[in-house]
Amino acid sequence: MSNKVPEATLVFWAIKIMATTVGETGADYLAVHVGLGTALTGAMMATLLVVALVAQLRVRKYVPWIYWLTVVLVSVVGTQLTDALTDKLGVSLYASTIAFSLALAVVFALWYRSERTLSIHTIYTTRRELFYWGAVLFTFALGTAAGDLATEALGLGFMIGVVAFSALIALVAAFYYAGVNPVLTFWLAYILTRPLGASFGDLLSQSRTYGGIGLGTINTSLLFLGAITALVIFASAVEQRTVSAPAVREP
């Protein structure tokens, strides 16, 4: 198998942030506006995630549309995990943030103990890929809990949340360019893009009464799904061109 995870380019981060936004607004739309409820929405999205994940595990290389479909569905399911704990079971956002932080730490510890690396550049075995997707799921759940904690429980609001999480990501990027461990900075940025995307999604979709712009969940979801589709088509074209390019022989 070749590496199953794309390079962390600007296109990668753009799709990642928009996927997290769709996870926030899409889950809210299905659960609240369509009226499916948290439990039914969670069950439906979990089923679709299993199907997408099986397809992702079966392919032998990075296939953009399968990979990013899986990311979007992980985003929705991760959001549903946090929402179910908060809304249905009454677990505080402080407790869920700590719980998901510990769960993610356990996944990373088991992954490193088994493979001696957490790099996304070496996801070329099924076991490593399962560790990778387990980590991705908990980064979404943790990011949702931390984002809601900051914007709602701590009262920062959506706009300040977007600014605050953008500043933290910029700080992580500065550490990366200063030579700090690239694996550590990647995963820190990966975690922080979740609350950034969620705050941005809430800012766009929520009504002005609650501090949002008022686009609504369906309009916001469709807007970002369209943008994700365009970028995935672009990524697919780049991938195809890379694969079909003739090898250059050394002189």
Automatic annotation (TrEMBL):
Span-the-membrane segments of this chain are 29-55, 62-81, 93-111, 131-150, 156-177, 184-201, 213-234
Q: Name one Pfam family in it.
A: DUF347
Write down the InterPro entries for this protein, in alphabetical order. DUF347 (IPR007136)
- Is Kinase one of the keywords? no
Give the protein's recorded name. Membrane-anchored protein
Give the UniProt keywords, A-Z. Membrane, Transmembrane, Transmembrane helix
Q: Which domain of life is it from?
A: Bacteria
